[in-house]
Amino acid sequence: MNLMALIEQFGSEDQCREYLETLRWPNGPVCMVCGSMSITDLPNRNLFQCSDCRNQFSVTSGTIMHDTHLPLVKWFMAIYLIVEGKKGISARQLGRTINVAYKTAWHLSHRIREALKTPDALLSGIIEVDETFIGGKTRGRGQGYKGNKTVVLGAIERGGEGRMKVAENRTAKEIRDFFDENISDDAEAIYTDEWIAYKNIAGDENTRHETVNHSEDEWVRGDVTTNTIEGMWSLFKRGVTGSFHKVSRKHLERYLDEFEFRFNYRNNPFIFRDALRELVQADRLTFQDLTR
What we know:
Blueprint: H1 3-9, H2 13-24, E1 39-42, E2 47-50, E3 56-57, H3 72-84, H4 91-98, H5 102-115, E4 126-134, E5 150-157, E6 162-167, H6 172-182, E7 189-192, E8 208-211, E9 220-221, E10 224-225, H7 227-244, H8 249-264, H9 271-279, H10 287-291
Parallel strand pairs: 4-7, 7-8
Antiparallel strand pairs: 1-2, 2-3, 4-5, 5-6, 9-10
């Protein structure tokens, strides 16, 4: 999918609606209340009606587009710009591009990010694990000051997917919980740096643990390295600096979800289609919940 193909294929509301119906109900519409497939089409109102329980619904009912006043054409354009942009797109730039107010673009962006959470499949094989700090500079503090920064834990499967999570700290307990949530017990190996919290939790009888010593300028030893996940951190931080300029801790998890989806689907030529499929299955993030 490229921009010209997007405009040609989804340039009208009817085209967008028909495509969403195909993605959401490949075997035909299903009633959201009783599950019946005995459905009557009400084309003049863009609705369906269940012949059994009389419930009326649309293709966007119960999705993040539920009760939206934004044309589906603009939804499709926003989704495309977010998932196809390597470093993301800011709400201000998105608003200018699809001609909506900043508040609308900001809410729209976060609804899309919320829906792009990566499935909880565990990583296996050879795993690189690292942590980083996200946040700006503080005047009058030394280079090592971390009080204004947020800890993010990350893991990446060699040749596979990555996982990232906002953490309270980088203690052994926090890292162990991250391991349990994201890494299979029978992973072949876990590669880390020599941060002390990894010492007794990264390996077991099924999984070997090896480290590289960055303090001694050791970055690669054979196939033992954390360069892959360092590259993932670098790409995310360039997106924060170049596109968003800064992100708050409150919303950081959603920016990670967006980047993680884009990173994990980096070799998928159907990333736009698969993003839409996630959106028609995800719950709606209301503006009240977003700003609470």
